Amino acid sequence: MKTKIMLLLVGAFLILSCRTQKNLARNYFLTHNINSSQQEQLDALLSRGLDYEALYTLLGKIKPMSTIRSYSFPIANTDSIKKTKADVLDLDKNQIHLDEITNLQHLIGTVDYPDLEFVLYPFQKNRKNRRNLQLVVFKESLLDSLLETKASFFGQFGLVPGTNASIVLSTVENSDRYERLRAYGYLFGYPDYAVDFFVEAMVEMKENDVLLPRNYFQIPSFSAKEGAFVYAYPKKHIPTKVDSSLYERSITLLNHYRDIRQNYLNPDSTLKASELLNDYYQSKLIFQ
What we know:
By secondary structure, the protein is an alpha+beta fold. Helix content is about 50%, strand content about 15%.
């Protein structure tokens, strides 16, 4: 009898141990514990990234940087008199917006996936009283490679491989108009000729009020056939191997994501995105 009880206890311990190890594995890349509500919010953010252009940064080495989501809050100063004052924002009315931003910063701070850096940053210019912010994700190894390959451009800012993604983004966002456009073009993974056209078209629009004729090269995402990963190119340009190679690499990754995505669905069809990323990066660590 004692032997049977002992065996049952050992069996229960092993089951609990396996479950505990599995749970630890599932949360391996969390920096600290979060509650169920925060987990839902985190999954919603990561799902949006995976289902759109950020897939090509989160699970692939295609885009050095991708947008996950954009935000807009009525917190920007529109009173020129307050530019020299310390008390600018009415906290009684606007603390709710700051709390939302704080929550977003907390959420992205709870994950630490290898080679990824999440950044929530404000745009320099406001639109009336609206301050726009954007949540992006970087593939750090691609960023370092880009800073090295394009050293003749990024070097002017003192940006070199190893520079923190937040510093790169802050420098780019606050640089001059055309330098800012070129930098964003490179960061978003557009081909060189498309980045050149991006800048040239803006110069033409600014100086001569002329919109250069263009076509758009569309790379689909899980949730959108167009408008996710897209760049403009000259109307007379014929896409080359540069474009087709980028397209094929992206489609290969997208098809892989479609295959594994169905294994990470909740009963309500929402995506267990953090679990998918956890499993993906654990397998990468194991097989590297």
